[in-house]
Amino acid sequence: RALRDIQTHAVTVDNYGGSYNITKFLIEKGRKRLAWIGEWNVTSAQDRLAGCRDAILDAGLTCDRSLFVDVNDATRGGHEDIVIMNWIDEVLATPQRPDAIVCGNDSTAIRVLHRLRLAGVAVPDEVAVTGFDDLEEAARTMPPLTTVRQPMERVGEEAARLLLQQIEKPDAEPQRIVIPVEIVTRESA
Asked: Would the pTM count as exceeding 0.90?
């Protein structure tokens, strides 16, 4: 994660672009009422939220604020599992439920898939679900999770390179490197 107010070296993935592109992917598949669920308190998640929101708006769709949820929302229970469970139950009870849920990370997406399965919702037929990370578990969920892959080995290589560079030239200007990501299409969307 890059800190916005502190000038330091940072290596991140393209959180905004990855979220924008996976949201655009869902819209191109005909999804019109998209939700987003994830953390709001870290920069990477804020960038992912912004990417999702902008893709929805750029497509000329309505960005329904009630469908954007912080997994740490104290008014919804405060604990990620409780927030996800309560929110899924709430949106499924409304006639205006989402037809796609963009999750801020794979662990949230895995929990969303589980809750939807318990509620008898067909994924992706009724609701498509996407994640962000491409954790090993993502390929083994039911159905397998469509997600954004972060090339973590490359992130580590770039971070090590910057560290060595900083040791050699401690007064060098801080660099911020953004590594591209890719969509991994599976059966959840």
From this structure: yes
